[in-house]
Amino acid sequence: VYHIYASPMLRLGEVDGAVVIVLDETQQRMAERSRQEFSANVSHELKTPLTSISGYAEMMENGMVASMDDIRKFSGSIHKESLRLIALIDDIIRLSRIEEEVKEPQSLEPVELDDLCEAVMESLEPVAKKAEVSLHLETCPAVLLGEDGMLSELVYNLCENAIKYNHPNGNVWLSLSQDEKEITIKVKDDGIGIPEESRLRVFERFYRVDKSHSKQIGGTGLGLSIVKHVVEYHHGRVELDSGLGVGTEIRVFLPKVIE
Ligand code: ADP
To answer: Which domain of life does this protein belong to (predicted)?
Structure first.
């Protein structure tokens, strides 16, 4: 959006010239709109579990729950929705912290990515076991100047998704490779895949493919948005390939040294 202000310069009653000011508001407006959309989305996402919690609690309060079984069912739902709320708030805080840091990068330190990947895979072992998914890791010694906590989160989110959106007996492969300039983190799965029209959108905040199916799986829709911001923080880039019913591969390229 360009705004053009023109004002003639008058001298002794004659037009001598003109002052033209061209103001580019595109960036500003887009940032403002994205902030507004984010607030609207956050309110909506927070309201949904809270409405359920308050509904269940009200029914219990009014004595509308007769049996012990019902009480167990209702309090179970309240518990589940509260956990969802906590996860959501955690992710929102994490995302806004990373967004702030992208604006003002903190000092970077050498991070041993092979150790980091091993630790993430180990922490996801119980999740994979429960989902009956096998984890495979292929690393090489790789050191990157970066932010340890953010990079762990990036690898964790990618691998957790690869487990979550998968089938029993599915597989997740995490691999590290490098050349002289950059390190590639690749997370591949043979899970449900992402439909073509959603492939560009999955990095948006709160975007989830097939909301009803995703709701059963659990998640906030913020994981890949966090990945995108961490990649941005490290001046890297991300690529995604996916086939419905075939699987998904996400590659993150990170420069070893940020210039
Ligand atoms: P969520 O918390 O829902 O997992 P993400 O931002 O991590 O949020 O991912 C956004 C959406 O992208 C997910 O809800 C899911 O529909 C889709 N998605 C992400 N990773 C995968 C994957 N490996 N396979 C299939 N779908 C995926």
So the answer is: Bacteria
